Amino acid sequence: MKRLLLTLVALAVGAGAFAQGAAPRAWQQRLQVDVPLPVPVVALEAANPFVVALDEPPKLVRATPPRKMEINLQARVAAYVNADGDCDGAVPLDSPFAALAQPLVSGLNRGRFEPARSNKTPEPSWVVLQIGLEGKIKESATSNQSLVMPSPASPPSPPQAAPPYRAGRLAQLPAVDPSRLTTLAVPRRVRVRISGGEIQSGVHALVHLTASGKCDRFVPLEVDSGLLSWLSAYFATWQVTPGRRNGNPVACWVDYSAKVVVKLSSLSSTTVTVLTGVPFTPSAAGSSAPTPGGG
Fold first, then answer.
1. Residue 158 lies in a domain
2. Distance from C-alpha of 284 to C-alpha of 293, rounded to nearest angstrom
3. What number is the average pLDDT over the span 6-27?
4. Alpha-carbon span 58 to 242, nearest angstrom
5. Does 156 map to a domain?
6. Is residue 52 in some structural domain?
7. What does the alpha-carbon distance between residue 74 and residue 67 come to, in Å, rounded to a whole number?
8. How far apart are CA 295 and CA 286, in angstroms?
9. Contact criterion met (CB below 8 Å) for 209 and 147
10. Among 118, 170, 182, 280, which is least packed by CB within 10 angstroms?
11. Where are the alpha helices (DSSP H) in 56-109?
């Protein structure tokens, strides 16, 4: 804010008065008045930072989908445990593949828990679990692959969160508020095993290609978490004719999408951990996915 200095001086002041050193009167004082000035508005340009100007776009020459690849996956599930320690159903919160959500729930239904307690009294409750799974991708294949240059006016945006699965009939079951519990439910004999099979999934990522025709990093945009390690290994096999500008190879980003089919071995849980401090409130409404626990 600029200060506008206003000086009020009498138009008719006798020279003799100044010569005699008379004290200035109130209306002769120097005043400072704050005058607000408008703040300009600056518009941000919608520019994509992943865009590089090229004369020739890069081309994918060779790529080998991984096979016989060990994988370690993570899933989060909210389990309803009754006062007897039985799991009456569960709601998948985060599945490495959408197709594995229901098998995860079915595996927990056979588990046994130490029930939650209020002092020494066992109580029905919800508990959020993180489940580690291990297995193998036996075979894999890609189709409908597309490499296009990113749009200059469309910066990438993070994927929207998937809608929550509904709890269905489980939302009607009695459950004690976590704040009233002395201890949470704890797994005693919980082992999840999921049969192998074929899974199809779409992938969408920004891929960085070096001037030597290799992929050295990528940004997942829409990728199942269970495919991330596979996709990283797949990109490592890429051989690319690099993009060119003024006849010289240039590093750049490309927008990549494809359909992926993987054949999984059976998956087995390696860890089942209670996530303390992670509340879960069941809802009968939500995703159009099948109701967990068969409700």
1. yes
2. 12
3. 46
4. 5
5. yes
6. no
7. 20
8. 13
9. no
10. 182
11. 101-108
Buried-state track 2-38, b at ≥16 Cβ within 10 A, e below 16: eeeeeeeeeeeeeeeeeeeeeeeeeeeeeeeeeeeee
The answer to whether 185 and 81 are in contact (CB under 8 A) is: yes
Q: What are phi and psi of 170, to 5 degrees?
A: -65, -25
What does the pLDDT read at residue 26? 56
Higher-scoring residue by pLDDT: 66, 3: 66
What is the pLDDT at residue 167?
A: 86
Cα separation of the two ends of the chain: 65
Tell me what pLDDT residue 11 has: 36
Is 54 within a domain?
Answer: no
Residue 14 belongs to domain spanning: 3-34
The whole-number pLDDT of residue 277 equals 86
Q: Are residues 201 and 80 in the same domain?
A: yes
List pLDDT tens digits, range 99-132. Answer: 999 999 988 887 899 999 999 999 999 999 999 9
CA atoms within 13 A on the CB side of 195: 3
Determine contact, residues 222/230, Cβ cutoff 8 Å: no
- 104 and 207 housed in the same domain: yes
Q: Give the pairing of strands 69-81 and 87-94.
A: antiparallel
Cβ proximity of 282 and 78 under 8 Å: yes
Please answer whether residues 128 and 278 qualify as being in contact, where contact means their C-beta atoms are separated by less than 8 angstroms.
Answer: yes
76 and 18 assigned to the same domain: no
pTM metric for this prediction: 0.77
Give the SS3 label for residue 206: strand
Q: How many structural domains comprise the chain? A: 2
Token pair 């004369």: residue: 55
Render the burial of 147-182: b for 16+ CB within 10 Å, e for the rest: bebbeeeeebeeeeeeebbbbbbbbebebbebeebe
97 three-class SS? coil
